[in-house]
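Handout, page 2. Input:
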Amino acid sequence: MENALQNIKRIIIYSFLIISFIYVFSLSPKLYANYPNGNTAGFFLRFSFPSQASLGMTGKFDTVPFMFSGIFNIGISSKGWAWFGVSASADWWGLKHRIGEVGRSIAWIYFGPGAEADIEFGNNYWNLALAFRLPLGVSFIVDRDWEIFLQIAPGFNVIAIGNDGFSTFGWYPSNTGWTFSKFFRFSGDFGFRYWF
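Output:
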């Protein structure tokens, strides 16, 4: 128990340091030169740990610095689907850096903190959760308006409530104790956006 609390403290401290570094590094306006701006909308496929497959819609408004997503999730088990749900996320790309040209497209890397809220339902199962995430992505800008992206997003559940009880950072005091799969999450996305 004491080791788990120390690990949680380390994760929070390291996350704070990473976010601070991103903020300071992102103050340079040169990082954003030639990246599309304005409004955007697109779609993506996601595969995640714990086992789930998702279809999502992503977009951004010109006046808001966050990339938003709405996602339909299906939980997968050895017997097929186990649950379904929806989630919403908002990511702030503190770092956008041009890598170079790949064929006719311009390659970029982006990185920054975000948050995700989700709700899941199944047979005798329900769960509401709020998670911190740290997406790292590579995007390819084609014809100045089209973006194809690959993204990974490790993260951790901050708060969850459901038929297993109430948890903070994956620890359910009234039920199972601390569970890695209830704390850590990891997703990989592939999709496209159109900037207009």
